[in-house]
Amino acid sequence: MTQPPDRARLVRIPLAGAVAPHDAPLLVAADAHPVALVGTWAGSQAICTSEPVAFAEEDPFAALDAVPEVDDAVPGAVGGGWIGFLGYGLGRTLEPSVPPAPPRPHALPDHALAYYDHVLRCDADGAWWFEALWTAPRAAALEERLALLRARVECPPAAGTFALGTLRSTGAGLAGHAAAVAQCRRRIAEGDLFEANICLLLEASFDGDDAALAAQVLRELRPSHGAHLGGPWGALVSASPELFLRREGRAVATEPIKGTAPGGTPAEALAASGKDRAENVMIVDLMRNDLGRVCDYGSVTVRDLCAPQATAGVWSLVSRVEGRLRPGVGDGELVRAAFPPGSVTGAPKIQAMRTIHELEGAAREAYTGAIGIASPLAGLELAVTIRTLELAGGRAWMGAGGAVTWPSDPWGEVEECLVKARPVAQAAGSRVASDAQDRAPDVPAAMLVRAARPDPQLGVLTTLRCDDGHPAFAQQHLDRLAAHARALWGVEISERLEALLAGLAQDAGHGSHRLRLRVVPQPGGPAVSGEAVAEPAAPVVVHTLVPVTLPGGLGAHKWCDRRLVDDLSAQLGRVPLLIDLDGSVLEAAWASVFAVEGDALVTPPADGRILPGVCRAVLLAAGEVCGMAVREEPLTFERLARADGVILTSGVRLAGAARLADGTAADADLVAAVRDLLLAASGQPRPDVAIA
Question: Domain named Chorismate-utilising enzyme C-terminal: which ranges (predicted)?
Fold first, then answer.
């Protein structure tokens, strides 16, 4: 990949046109990797560009310092530079002690940062300029870009159409968020931390033109740090009001936001709120510490403290912390010292990040990271990625959160999330759902898991039974494992997996075996491996389930890292039953769960929180067993406790009876019928004794 040049010359050409700044996304939407920054970025009303010449790959922080020396520079110019986003997940690369994140329902890249050697800029007076960091090898290409972009400014492209569905809470929903806040308050009371920013995830369908969506949102909300970014990975539409970092020369500043009230609230009431001021002051102290790591001793000061400001449809308390960078400190070191932003983590920061990964049910993607620009002329300017719609695969999602401190009310924090999300949704022509029934969770008295979640870097696997050389549901297991690899690493390995499974089955030969196939990420591409383990026959047993709470569950992938469930199984001496914070039943440690309810078998929906089990899918496709309907629908722990029994299904055991400690075991004849159906569907010979 081409790297930025060592030296360039600034070229500025005025353009005729009267494009509104909020329409900047439309000017570059038809190109590759379009970006638009709208608001007050670098003293401009809008900066937009596309068709970059280099990409940050392994270390985006280091890339921020790879900018050319520029001749003929003038004050106020931007010229170009690195523009893009840094995802929240990069924080774990800076703090390896933070455990792995919760499941990722929609995975975006950890960063999308590219070097652009030209921009369109709308200055503070509303005049448009073509600015370029000109080099001889790029002269012809830049002349072409000038002609194309000049024509677009003179005759702007029309906006397309789009449709954003109603934004609804995902996973454990609003009740789950309230429960997460309650758990966070408990940790604060125990002295684990002072404050954590706990977030709620909202999701909707999306179809159409994301640049048109951005133009509309930016027009309606007029944020100070609005943005639109696009690429093969999807798009971001941000109405961020919060400055994360600005560096001009050696001077650096941050403006953390903490403390929020609805737009109709008097500003004086927010300024007088002890709770909101305490949230803000704690984060100001944190940001002073972060800047102090890279600034001259004694130069870090607080200029404004808890000033009420109107931001993206709400009132917020905004403070300003300033400092002067030490000699030799570049943009990369500055961002590393402060990332992820303190206002969206908490205090102490590392402990808050651990708490976030333990209590939130879904991983953050671009949300609560940073968006912005590093220019050799304008310096560094990054916004906190909040009030942001993330788009990919026909879906849109938005995080909304707030600082949890000891005075926090769980349902008050839910409402604060919705207060922040509603203006963005309304600006996009949508709304935020807040169903009343979400306020009555059935949360069992179950242990909250505080162990590290599975580490995705250890890979994914599938395990299936094999009797006399015949693997059960071979194609379904291969398809699922290949889908894991495709979703996680963008690779196609179906043929390699088929060859591996065929060899393992042949080597297994006579008798019962477990076949295990693994896919592990490697620098040169995923490695595949497997093993066949003889499985001695065992008597049929009734498994006892013990509920444990794991926010967001294990997700839709079957991880090689089984330490969490193995340790829980050993600790409990029973089979862990995973439930979410709202009391939703998810799955057992190694099996899908079916509740026996009268004339039906009911299993929780595969909504991204559970592994879509192969045997589970076979039963749902069959539609009925012994005249009993098989269906999926939300299943609470309270409902499971009232069931006539529980059946577990898995790729090795196929089907087995289970019960809660004080519950009823599923009827043995029904379990046998389920098992017979699965054996018939698998095409296997019927073994004399089941694997327990």
Answer: 177-420
Q: Is the pLDDT of residue 438 over 70?
A: no
Bridge partners of 399? 201
Distance CA 667, CA 689 (A): 18
Residue 92: other Cβ atoms inside 10 A: 17
Looking at the chain, the domain(s) classified CATH 3.30.470.10 span 456-534
What are the C-alpha distances in Å from 168 to residues 13, 61, 208, 431? 46, 34, 19, 9
Cis peptide before 348 (omega within 30 of 0): yes
What pLDDT score was predicted for residue 93? 94
Give burial (CB, 10 Å; 0-12/13-18/19+) of 393: exposed
Q: Under 8 Å CB-to-CB from 630, ≥6 apart: which residues?
A: 594, 600, 601, 603, 619, 620, 622, 623, 624
Residues of the chain with CATH 3.60.120.10: 7-439
d(CA 391, CA 468): 48
- How do strand 512-520 and strand 460-467 relate by DSSP bridges? antiparallel
CATH fold of 456-534 reads D-amino Acid Aminotransferase; Chain A, domain 1 (3.30.470)
Q: Measuring CA to CA, which residue among 388, 394, 336 is closest to residue 366?
A: 388
How far is the C-alpha of 276 from the C-alpha of 267, rounded, in Å? 12
- 543-682 placed in CATH 3.30.420.40: no
b vs e for 360-373, b when ≥16 Cβ sit within 10 Å of the residue's Cβ? bbbbbbbbbbbbbb
Counted residue by residue, the chain has a size of 692
Average pLDDT over the chain, rounded to whole? 94
**3-state SS, residue 672:** helix
Domain ranges in the chain with CATH number 3.20.10.10: 543-682
Percentage with pLDDT > 70 across the chain? 97
Rg of the chain in Å (alpha carbons): 27
Q: What's the whole-model pTM score?
A: 0.95
Write the burial class of residue 541 (CB in 10 Å: 0-12 exposed, 13-18 middle, 19+ buried): exposed
Instruction: Give the per-residue pLDDT at 264.
Output: 81
pLDDT tens digit string along 439-464?
Answer: 545 454 578 998 899 999 999 999 99
Reference 42, options 245, 327, 311, 217; nearest CA is: 245
Residue 691 has what pLDDT?
A: 43
DSSP state of 325: B
C-alpha–C-alpha distance, residues 417 and 402, integer Å: 6
- Identify which of 110, 73, 104, 74 has the alpha carbon closest to the alpha carbon of residue 90: 110
- What confidence score (pLDDT) does residue 688 get? 47
Residue 685 has a pLDDT of 60
Just list the catalytic residues: 242, 258
The whole-number average pLDDT for the span 9-21 is 96
CATH homologous superfamily of 7-439 equals: Anthranilate synthase (3.60.120.10)
**Cβ atoms of residues 361 and 552 within 8 Å:** yes
Distances (CA, A) of 567 to 23, 321, 561, 570, 656: 54, 45, 11, 5, 22
Please check the confidence at residue 684 and state whether its pLDDT lies above 70: no
Give the DSSP letter string of 136-167. GGGHHHHHHHHHHHHHHHHSPPPP--EEE--B
